[in-house]
């Protein structure tokens, strides 16, 4: 119920113009900011529709609800994910559900529309987040891509193969493809809902935006390694790291927020993660020289940020600009402190830094300052075929956006210790450069058997585009000469690919 009370409070203030939505949500210190923001944003979008329904069903009197709380509850009951509360309020709302549903249906008939979204005024309809594909990461701790694809096919979805370009993400209802960059990511049409699906409930799939899968994928810690997830909750990236590590090694995960850690614990349990050690602790106070961290070679740092890349969190209202500037400056200073702290772990080889922010103050500027203060680290050039790069002068980094990558706004940088790069044998398998890390083409489930007229995806997933994923050779990405073994493997792989073509 706390979610609804907080959402109603913020909605009321925002509608009375007592502050920008984003600032009000962040200042609320609510444990799940994203969930709260999404609920308030969506309720506000449907506000006039909800008000009409509430007034014509005369809901306020019998329920003794105030308008803002009624709006939030009616939103989730009729349009959102369903009420997430129990107790007397749920009972009250359920008593009136049929009348509310009937009023919504009447409204659609009157306006000659069939979808809830079509009731919205044109200005409120344009939420780019609604157009983003639904990304589903296969949790390889519990299943394989092949098995997940088979299960979904048996469940009525139609598999179109591996995408070779972003255009292939124009999918109809139950169609899906494998992503062109991340081999364990399935892509569905926007709004495909898996919350009630067996694969989701059993932890076989994780609902995670494509951009947010990049940090763990790019850090790519080998099984058996020691890894830190510095600001870990609610833990999607932690579970991704564990999957890459095949649950072998040690995964230290820190977060300041106890409530978020509790949620994370449930999520990790469902995902079958066992190699983790959670700590409700300030990462900045973790001692890099502590004996338990002496073997830490990889760090994922995804610190608190403005969230400006999250489409549902975008707030274009004329917020107090001074307030916003101060907030960004304080976030950037925190992010830089976290980065500098991470680089102090004595055996660190690689650190991946990410934010879901579109502001250069939290991204390129933080990285540039960090590199200046830590000349023994350098940037690893990432996925050369990725369509959106870090702003100049840091094109080694990746950016993501609704328009160029069909994801939420995101930023990723991979830092590597310079002095360690001479030791090639110890170099981790590298998704930016190693052929053996790419899902072998033969393992990508073949959609050809399921011919679909007008399919957006080429039928043979073993096309030359599979090679595009191989990306730069090691020497191009980090200055290392590739080992003989790796050169041989690469040659062999190339031969196989040209055969497939
Ligand atoms: N990586 C997470 C994931 O993928 O699910 C999301 C992390 S979220 C962007 C940032 C997290 O940093 C929040 O959960 C916040 O509580 C945590 N945090 C903020 N300051 C921290 C600190 N000093 N030490 C550890 N965690 C911190």
TrEMBL record:
Chain residues that bind S-adenosyl-L-methionine: 231-237, 255, 282, 302
Start-end of Acidic residues biased regions: 459-468
Keyword Methyltransferase tagged: yes
Signal peptide limits: none
Coiled coil: 90-117
Pfam families: Methyltr_RsmB-F, NSUN5_fdxn-like, NSUN5_N
Keywords: Coiled coil, Methyltransferase, RNA-binding, S-adenosyl-L-methionine, Transferase
Alphabetical GO biological process terms: rRNA base methylation
InterPro entries (alphabetical): MeTrfase_RsmB-F_NOP2_cat (IPR049560), MeTrfase_RsmB-F_NOP2_dom (IPR001678), NSUN5_7_fdxn-like (IPR049561), NSUN5_RCM1_N (IPR048889), RCMT (IPR023267), SAM-dependent_MTases_sf (IPR029063)
Location of the region described as Disordered in the Swiss-Prot/TrEMBL record: 424-501
Active site: 356 (nucleophile)
Listed SUPFAM superfamilies: S-adenosyl-L-methionine-dependent methyltransferases
Compositional bias per record (Basic residues), positions renumbered to this chain: 484-501
Residue intervals of the SAM-dependent MTase RsmB/NOP-type domain: 124-418
Example GO molecular function: RNA binding
Superkingdom of the organism of origin: Eukaryota
Classification via Gene3D superfamilies: Sun protein, domain 3 (3.30.70.1170), Vaccinia Virus protein VP39 (3.40.50.150)
CC per GO annotation: nucleolus
Similarity comment: family membership: Belongs to the class I-like SAM-binding methyltransferase superfamily. RsmB/NOP family.
Name of this chain's protein: NOP2/Sun RNA methyltransferase 5
């Amino acid at each position: 119920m706390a979610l609804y009370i907080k959402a109603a409070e913020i909605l009321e203030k925002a509608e009375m113009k007592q502050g920008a939505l984003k600032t009000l949500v962040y200042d609320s210190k609510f444990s799940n900011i994203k969930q709260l923001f999404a609920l308030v944003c969506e309720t506000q979008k449907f506000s006039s529709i909800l008000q009409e329904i509430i007034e014509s069903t005369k809901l306020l009197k019998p329920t003794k609800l105030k308008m803002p709380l009624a709006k939030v509850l009616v939103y989730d009951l009729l349009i959102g994910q369903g009420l997430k509360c129990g107790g007397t309020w749920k009972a009250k709302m359920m008593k009136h559900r049929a009348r509310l549903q009937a009023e919504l249906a009447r409204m659609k008939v009157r306006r000659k529309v069939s979808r809830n979204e079509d009731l919205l005024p044109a200005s409120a309809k344009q939420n780019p987040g609604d157009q983003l594909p639904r990304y589903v990461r296969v949790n390889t701790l519990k299943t394989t891509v092949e098995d997940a694809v088979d299960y979904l096919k048996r469940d009525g979805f139609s598999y179109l193969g591996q995408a070779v370009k972003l255009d292939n993400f124009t999918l109809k209802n139950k169609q899906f493809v494998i992503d062109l960059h991340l081999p364990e990511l399935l892509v569905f049409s926007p709004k495909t809902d898996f919350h009630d699906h067996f694969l989701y409930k059993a932890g076989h799939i994780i609902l995670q935006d494509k951009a947010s899968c990049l940090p763990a994928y790019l850090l790519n810690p080998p099984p058996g390694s020691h890894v830190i997830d510095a600001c870990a909750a609610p833990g999607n990236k932690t579970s991704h790291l564990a999957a890459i590590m095949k649950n072998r090694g040690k995964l230290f995960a820190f977060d300041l927020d106890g409530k978020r850690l509790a949620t994370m614990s449930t999520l990790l349990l469902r995902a079958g993660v066992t190699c983790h050690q959670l700590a409700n602790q300030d990462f900045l106070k973790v001692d890099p020289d502590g004996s338990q961290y002496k073997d830490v070679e990889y760090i994922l740092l995804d610190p608190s940020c403005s969230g400006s890349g999250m489409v549902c969190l975008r707030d274009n209202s004329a917020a107090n600009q001074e307030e916003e500037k101060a907030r960004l400056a304080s976030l950037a200073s925190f992010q830089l402190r976290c980065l500098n702290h991470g680089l102090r772990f004595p055996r660190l080889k690689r650190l991946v830094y990410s934010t879901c922010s579109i502001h250069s103050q939290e991204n390129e500027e933080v990285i540039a300052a960090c590199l200046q203060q830590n000349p023994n680290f350098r940037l690893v050039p990432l996925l050369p075929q990725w369509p959106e790069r870090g702003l100049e002068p840091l094109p080694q980094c990746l950016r993501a956006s609704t328009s160029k990558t069909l994801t939420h706004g995101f930023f990723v940088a991979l830092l590597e210790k310079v002095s360690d790069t001479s030791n090639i044998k110890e170099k981790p398998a590298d998704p930016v450069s190693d052929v053996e890390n790419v899902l072998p083409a033969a393992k990508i489930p073949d959609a050809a058997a399921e011919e679909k007229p007008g399919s957006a995806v080429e039928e043979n997933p073993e096309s030359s585009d599979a090679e595009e994923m191989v990306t730069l050779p090691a020497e191009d990405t980090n200055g290392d000469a590739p080992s003989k073994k790796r050169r041989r493997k690469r040659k062999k792989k190339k031969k196989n690919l040209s055969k497939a073509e």
